Amino acid sequence: MTSAAEPVFRRAERADLPALIALFAADALGGHGDTVHPDAFARYERAFERIEASANDILLVGVLGGEVVATAQVTFTTSLPSRGRTNMTIEAVQTRDDMRGQGIGAKLIHHCIALGRERGAGLIQLMSNAKRADAHRFYERLGFKKSHAGFKMVLEALPAAT
Amino acid sequence: MTSAAEPVFRRAERADLPALIALFAADALGGHGDTVHPDAFARYERAFERIEASANDILLVGVLGGEVVATAQVTFTTSLPSRGRTNMTIEAVQTRDDMRGQGIGAKLIHHCIALGRERGAGLIQLMSNAKRADAHRFYERLGFKKSHAGFKMVLEALPAAT
Fold first, then answer.
1. A122 close to B (CB below 8 A)
2. A66 in reach of chain B (CB within 8 A)
3. Is the pTM higher than 0.90?
């Protein structure tokens, strides 16, 4: 792994959407049914607007050579346990396939951690599919503890992409 | 387990705070450092105000015989994967120690699931401490799949309760 790649991290803009959708569509393991098919675009656009409208959410992109090469979303949630601590959740983390092994993902997570500190989060949390052994080692190297089990229940099957 | 207990579920109110804090303070396993000490109250109050102010968060209580016997917080997050799906996260789940084994926790989670459907969530997710084997069986019985690992990183140690 070299550390030469120095991506710039910033909030996602609407113009980043096609590149972001392509990142998720390329991820077969998650089984999230993402697609670059134009019929699905309006759904992503609505989601982007909701994320933008939420004061608790920040959608980030990592840009290198003018291209979106990585993304993550952070969500801030205050709850009562731990004396009313604010937690930051990281999700929807992706690095473009051909950009792996350059430390971009680690820089992205470090950027998220810095954002969490800036905003006063007392804890950062995330879930990773049980099958992603590489991702688990990655997060442990970055200082996360695999202390929890993650449970999911799908309520709505995805519509066909047509 | 009997199913006689029929709690009413509603949004938490400020007057519920002392009972809610007592629920979290009684939970030794989570190691969350919660306390009913009056010096800590202001922090819980600020957290309650933030939860109330967030359009994406709902703090629930289960009430039985006029007393708060259970609680959970749900957070709605829209993100890009799964074609812009809205996910609901359940956290800060507690049932009062002396009220266990009456199906109150299961009713609370069913109430959360119904809320998720009402608000158009496509997926419900939660994390549970790896040590809570009973909780894992509970969530699996309710239809959740333990498909993920949960990672945490503490940024801020709790202040002393004094």
1. yes
2. no
3. yes
Q: Which residues of A66-82 are buried (b: 16+ CB within 10 A; e: fewer)?
A: eebbbbbbbbbbbbbbb
pLDDT digits (tens, 9 = 90+) for B54-87: 999 999 999 999 999 999 999 999 999 999 999 9
Question: In a mutagenesis test of the B interface, which of A11, A83, A94 is the best target, namely the one with the most B β-carbons within 10 Å?
Answer: A83
Alpha-carbon span B72 to A25, nearest angstrom: 34
> Which CA distances in Å does A136 have to A105, A118, A142?
13, 25, 10
For residue A87, the cross-strand partners are A77, A123
B128 token code pair: 């549970």
Closest CA to A22 of A6, A46, A44: A44
Distance between CA atoms of B86 and A162, rounded to whole angstroms? 21
Residues 35-64 of B with CB under 8 A from A: 35, 40, 43-48, 50-51, 54-57, 59
The whole-angstrom distance between A113's CA and the closest CA on chain B is 9
Beta strands A67-78 and A86-95 are: antiparallel
CA distance A107 to A104: 5
